[in-house]
Amino acid sequence: xxxGVEAVGLCAGALTTLAFVPQVVxxxxxxxxxxxxxxxxxxxxxxxxxxxxYGVLIASWxxxxxxxxxxxxxxxxxxxxLRRERPHAAADAGPRxxxxxxxxxxxxxxxxxxxxxxxxxxxxxxxxEQAFADAIGATQAVxxxxxxxxxxxxxxxxxxxxGRGRGVTAGxxxxxxxxxxxxxxxxxxxxxxxxxxxxxxxxxxxxxxxRVGDWVTDRxxxxxxxxxxxxxxxxxGLADACRPRGLVLVEDASDALTATLRGxxxxxxxxxxxxxxxxxxxxALPDAHVADLARGLRGTLDIETTEEDAGRALTALKALGAxxxxxxxxxxRLRRALVxxxxxxLPVLDPGLPAQRAWPRFVVQVPAARRDRVLQALAARGIxxxxxxxxxxxxPHASExAARGIxxxxxPADGATEPxxxxxxxxxxxxxxxxx
Length: 436
What we know:
Layout: H1 2-30, H2 38-57, H3 61-85, H4 88-101, H5 116-136, E1 140-144, H6 147-157, E2 173-177, H7 182-190, E3 194-198, E4 220-226, H8 235-242, E5 248-252, E6 260-261, E7 264-265, E8 273-277, E9 280-285, H9 288-297, H10 307-318, H11 320-338, E10 355-356, E11 361-365, H12 371-380, E12 385-387, H13 396-404, E13 405-409, H14 422-435
Parallel strand pairs: 2-3, 2-4, 4-5, 5-8
Antiparallel strand pairs: 1-9, 6-7, 6-10, 8-9, 11-13, 12-13
């Protein structure tokens, strides 16, 4: 009888040890134990512990060793779960406050039928998230209904898991550029936060790290580093400015999707980074726990993605690199042709960082008194262009850039994408004539 029980204990210990090794490896590599039930871990640990104690009582060292290894692995999993999830309890309070006091409540159970179409949408959404994370080198990506809601999610979960307590909630202040897009403003106000406007560098059009402290108050919680017109901003400098002040930094890379910084795509540097991608938004995150938290908050923000939107985004993702290369070639050809034009400030090639900029648009600055005439000349030549919107706050550099700036479309209707093709020559000549 004892030999039979000993054999059962030995087999149980050996088999469960083999089964637990992949679980430990997965939890350690993904930094998440979300798939493991705490109750199951506790009950299983207790069962293995009883076999371990039984082996000690009957002096059966094979049973002790086999079940001791399993017990050790289960304790490792318990420690991982406590380390990865319990410390976030206080940090999670921030987003939950936003959920309770600012964000609309989720729809009641049963108000939206969970049908096959919804299941297919979630599958497409998951595929898109994984494909986008792989494309930019991020650990996680979370889909949202727009770039605005992606950034709102990023602000809500920023700082969670970094030892900084919580993300942005109602009543906080968020420092943004005085040239901030509507997307950035709406993301902050959607959480009940107040945007505070900072001046920009007149050439890169992005925030200046050395000046961020000028706008910090005791209510400031976050800084949004918006990459403007394809130019990566100095996020490392901004992070250095935020760190001693206890502020969180969130990036918005919607306007610089194919740009790289220090050899990595934007979104791969370990900070929440929002993207507007087609009709959807995507949020790159460095941590599986925070990604799960962001997915949980999507319901409170009333975010819905459709199967069609996810499918179109997947198709666009496959062509992303080719489109960026075509615009870069056209922009460089155009920039060379405009060197020397009097009174013209050309877009920067080197923002003073180890970076490669993207070219969603070609932004130039002309004398403010000439801007309307230049826009009319561009329109007469069939070239799509628009004046930069006014600065949101009357700050010196932002106001000057807004009064002088023109954004030229780099997706011309006649297909001027070949660097030396006839369509490109016509496009470049038209822009030069209008600006000259």
